[in-house]
# Entry
Amino acid sequence: MIFLLKKGTSIRNTAKLANVSISTTQRIKKEFAVNSFFEVL
# Structure
């Protein structure tokens, strides 16, 4: 799931692909402070 968020996939699509709720996806994004793929590079 983190890979998808780093890649720039939307929260809604990430949640659907990972088979979790949108709120769970938002919580994980916030917890890992995933902003964009290019920021990690």
In short: The first helix runs from residue 2 to 7. Residues 2-36 form one domain. The two ends are 18 Å apart (CA to CA). The chain has a mean pLDDT of 83.
